[in-house]
Amino acid sequence: MSQFISLQVGQCGNQIGSAFWPLALHEYGVQTTNTGMNLLKTQRDHVKNIGDLSDAFDSFFVVPDNSHDLCFKSITDLKRAKVKARAILIDMEDSVVGGLRKGPVRDLFDQACVVTNYPGAVGYHTYGTEYQEKLEDTIRHMVEKCSRLHGFLLMHSVGGGTGSGLGTAVLKLLADNYPTIDRLVSCIYPIVMQDVVTAPYNVLLSTRELIDYATCVFPIENESLLDICNAQLKVKGNTEQINYNVSCKPFQDMNSIVANMLLHLTSGSRFPGNLNMDMNEIATNLVPYPKLHYIFSSVSPLTLSAPTMYSVSGTKLIDEIFINAWSRNNQLIKVDPLQSGSMILSAAHVARGNCSVNDLKRNIERFRKKVTFTDWSNEAMKVGLCSVPPAGHSTSLLCLLNSSSMISLFKNVVEQFTRLYRKKAHVYHYTQVRGFEETHFIDCKETISNLIMQYTELQSESQKNISRLQVL
Question: Which residues pair with 61 in a beta bridge?
């Protein structure tokens, strides 16, 4: 099975990580809280072959060679076997990382893979340079513990200082040192009214780096996460959900949604399946042109956590999961890929658990009728079917789309930047940093504008009728 290294950068990235690791353990049937015993028992009973969980355990965890029993059931078992997460924790202040070090999964993290400092600061040119050697050594330390490294999972925000600056500096470092390893970025885009006044600058600068150095980017908007959480809290029964993320309570549900998406995304590389989709197939099938690698994502069913096993059976309920995945209520970004005028460049549907090939075929035909593909990508539909369901569900679906509707995200980035930059507000904060020139803003804006033009051309492209050659 493939192995992945998680890089959690900044406050946001480490908050997502604090939700990710307990959920990952629950997916492997490992208890992290006293209240989770019934769920874990049901999860283990629901998996047809319990060996599938054990065989895939080292995808996210480093298990010492002297440990022969991979059927762990509790945090105590992991501590006794000296199991460590394939995680690198990076932040220039210690609040969230400190919470992880004191939380229920604290023993999972290798202290040699924690990079922190006081106080907080903008990261790309300052800490990206100052800490480059430390970051390289830390990443190398974790890479050397892998025998089948498939990809890096990078989690960070693009609006703040550390996440956007240091997060993209780490991304470039990965591209330079490990160019053949996939760099899969899950980044959080802020809502229009940002908490950080310089967020439009940070978003523009980091977006340019993501375009240049990521293999695939899975953008997520805080506004979408908030809407999902508000809708789910109104659903009867969600008030008793397990509190996975006790260290970051205000954002715990939002972080769990992102964590579940990442677990589903990597499931085909970790578990067996009748029609499995490996992670390397995502970039191969969903990225038709260089740099057009921003991928829209939606998940169904959406729950904030997994208190009870949610069983799905019957054609009607399976079809409902697909319909919900196409609904705007389940989208992790406000961009609407099904809107009139937008084009689908490529698409993928990844199912887990109790779903058959016929279920996939039937619903994919329905999907084709809902959307407009480009003339050359009408058959560009990748499907995956993983046999191991996520914890808390018997069936789930991840929908991935590369759509020209992503134009609206990039246009918003440029508009927000232009509105602030027109007044030259706060520019001096950036120009006083060694190595940063004001022209860098203009270069980044031009790069994003060129990407918008590429999407626009594809969206308006019409089929060319080429007359057949006549033999004289």
Answer: 85
Q: Do 337 and 249 have their domain in common?
A: no
137-143 long-range contacts, Cβ below 8 Å, gap at least 24? 138/88, 138/112, 138/113, 139/5, 139/7, 139/88, 139/173, 139/174, 139/177, 141/110, 141/112, 141/113, 142/5, 142/86, 142/87, 142/88, 142/110, 142/113, 143/5, 143/178
What is the DSSP secondary structure assignment for residue 393, as one 8-state letter? B
Q: Does the pTM exceed 0.85? A: yes
User: Which one, of 193, 357, 364, lies nearest residue 275 by Cα?
Assistant: 357
Q: What are the tokens at 272?
A: 């067996």
Locate tokens 């802020």: which residue? 190
pLDDT band at 185 (very low <50, low <70, confident <90, very high): very high
Residues 416 and 399 placed together within one structural domain of the fold: no
What gap in Å lies between CA 230 and CA 321, rounded to an integer? 20
d(CA 408, CA 371): 18
Report the alpha-carbon distance of residue 455 to residue 209 in Å, rounded: 18
281 and 365 inside one domain: no
Asked if residue 400 and residue 443 are part of one domain, the reply reads no
Q: Kindly tell me the sign of the dihedral angle through the C-alpha atoms of 120, 124, 127, 132.
A: positive
Residue 11 to residue 162: CA distance in whole angstroms: 8
**Domain presence at residue 193:** yes
Q: How far apart are CA 216 and CA 72, in angstroms?
A: 33
Domain residues for 192?
3-288
CATH number of the domain bearing residue 353: 3.30.1330.20
If one counts every other C-beta atom within 10 angstroms of the C-beta of residue 72, the result is 24
Edge-first strand listing for the sheet containing 296-300? 296-300, 395-403, 344-353, 381-386
Q: How many domains does the chain have?
A: 3
Q: How many H-runs (helices) and E-runs (strands) does the chain carry?
A: 17, 12
Is residue 317 within a helix (H) or strand (E), and if so which, with residue range?
Answer: helix 315-326
Cα separation, 295 vs 161, in Å, equals: 24
273-314 tens-digit pLDDT: 888 888 888 999 999 999 999 999 999 987 655 444 445 555
Pull the structure tokens for residue 199.
């967020």
Residue 216 and residue 107 share a domain: yes
Q: What percent of the chain has pLDDT over 90?
A: 50
pLDDT reported for residue 246: 38
CB atoms within 10 A of CB 166: 28
Q: Give the H or E element holding residue 346.
A: strand 344-353
